[in-house]
Amino acid sequence: MTAIPETFSYAAALACARCGRPYPIHQIQQFADCCQQPLLVQYDWEPGFCKEDLLFREKTMWRYFEALPVSERKHIISLGEGMTPLFQLSSLGSEQDFADLWMKDESGNPTGSFKARGMSVAISKAKELGIHRCIVPTAGNAGGALAAYCAKAGMECTVVMPRHTPSVFKDECRLYGANLVLVDGLISDCAKKVGEVNREKDWFDLSTLKEPYRLEGKKTMGYELAEQFNWQLPDYILYPAGGGTGLIGIWKAFKEMLSAGWLAPGTSLPKMIAVQSMECAPLVRAFYQPQQWKQGFQPQPSIANGLAVPYPFGMDMMLEVLQQSGGLAMAVSESAIKKALQQVARQEGLLISPEGAATWAALLQLRNAGHIDPGARIVLLNTGSGYKYLENLQ
Fold it and tell me: How confident is the model at residue 10 (pLDDT cuts 50, 70, 90)?
């Protein structure tokens, strides 16, 4: 057992997610221009960072400091993110005959969502690299998180958000001092606006997977799940996938822990199930019709704002996770999401995000179709607080 060191990281390099071409980690990077794919942080854990080192460390995601890409602890920009609770859904599980049903609840993170994890690492690394101005297209939660961490770091921040986003997401960005730009359309239209802004000004773009470090923050959910289950992984994880950073990050964490010897040799990794809304389900379409998924695709807004990501930059990586894990992708209706949110609130006392509720709706459909073992250990990921979506639910 050791305290978190002041200066240390096993982060060794960046590599293209497709071809593996190396990129220097000590320079400002966005994504791999060789294949137009995300960059992944690679680690060299020899002689090793041991799970026993975690004993008595602070209860935030920075307890995994050596497995994160920030080299010096003085650069960390933290608001206390991570180490979120893992709840057993005893009432719903008993009623629906699930023997071992759990929810990883990210609603208690700063700014009310899992986006805090990614932005904490991204802004910490940005500080270390000397970046001072950041911009992001967002469906809601990522914008508020970036605004908060930029405020903490003393950086300038611009957030580009769909005009139809609930007011609370807009208000928090303004309160944190961000420059808020509203756009008609979905997050893909916001991304186009970011490109226009950056033709005139030099802002660091923190779009999902278009820089390497938000992914590293999100992967800590995987480390926490393993630690909270005493290094025994669940059989299934249902994840609400929009841009897919969390899905990819959790899988990356599991593979890192296997490589480092934190998990027993031969440990079976969970089947990863990606859940989307029927209003915008590009991953589902690509999973079942990889060559034709864009034909006739007409994405629409969803009450689960974070799921309305029509053309995710990490599509290939998400598909790879599903294939490697033996998982699948599925979509649920807006009405099923609303019903699921009410069920979880009334029976478990948890007011979760519509994105998180989508996983419960999906689980019921999978069980009814015989695609999941109700006796298995199942984890649902709730990515944010339902309080921020009350305007959507009226």
Answer: confident
- By percentage, how much of the chain surpasses pLDDT 70? 98
**Interval 89-119: pLDDT, tens:** 999 999 999 999 999 999 999 999 999 999 9
- Mind spelling out the 3-state secondary structure of the chain? CCCCCCECCCEEEEEECCCCCEECCCCCCCCECCCCECEEEEECCCCCCCHHHHCCCCCCHHHHHHHCCCCEHHHCCCCCCCCCCEEECHHHHHHCCCCEEEEEECCCCHHHECHHHHHHHHHHHHHHHCCCEEEEECCCHHHHHHHHHHHHHCCEEEEEEECCCCHHHHHHHHHCCCEEEEECCCHHHHHHHHHHHHHHCCCEECCCCCCCCHHHHHCHHHHHHHHHCCCCCCCEEEEECCCCHHHHHHHHHHHHHHHHCCCCCCCCCCEEEEEEECCECHHHHHHHCCCCCCCCCCCCCCCCHHHCCCCCCCHHHHHHHHHHHCCEEEEECHHHHHHHHHHHHHHHCCCECHHHHHHHHHHHHHHHCCCCCCCCEEEEEECEEHHHHHHHHC
